[in-house]
Amino acid sequence: MTEPRVELEHEFSLDIDYNPSRWLELPPRWDTEEWQDIGVWARTCAELFWRSYGQDPGEPGISFLAGRLRHFAEAFAPEPFDTRVLLRMWEPTHMPLQLFTMVKPAQGHREETLRFLVAVEDPDAVEPPVVETFRTELLGEGLRAFRYLRQDDTPEVLAALRYAWRDEEVGADVVLWTASENTAQIIRAAQDIEELAHKVSVAVWDLEPEDEASPDVKP
Questions:
Q1: Are 128 and 160 found together in one domain?
Q2: Inter-residue long-range contacts of 1-8, CB under 8 Å, 24+ positions, other chains counted
């Protein structure tokens, strides 16, 4: 999803209190200070993850996981600061699942926007999605939708899970989503994604020149 830049009095970013034993965050593409390059990041994370899992796979195992992490980073690492991408990690030899979160200025009618963000009217859906209300303490009431959709002209079907909220207090829309050809993978991750959804909040950056403080994270 590509969104136009909007000049506002405030800009938004996301605060996510995730469990690092389950989730690994992809570094943004513009982050060159902490990591020399994406290959260094991938290998460092692979070594740490194998160590935390209590196994020594040797060089082949580390290289395998590092290559997989690099692939995910090259494909999904975010560019805009208002998007964050996490990987749900399982055993080191199992394929991670990517999860995207994005915040943007609220636009349009609340209900219509939330339905759009969870793709209720997706023309590529194989069948009508399962849509439910979903409430968190930090973001209030939103929508959750699960659907199956076709991939262009291929016979393959994707399973997709989306959440969306409008934070009325700060005027921001938040969307969280994942998709995979492996339906069982999404089902396996569903409970962890739901728990994570309760830990997402909006940080507001005040762009007034006299205020150079850190972002005010809405409780």
A1: yes
A2: 1/102, 3/102, 3/104, 6/104, 6/105, 8/105, 8/207
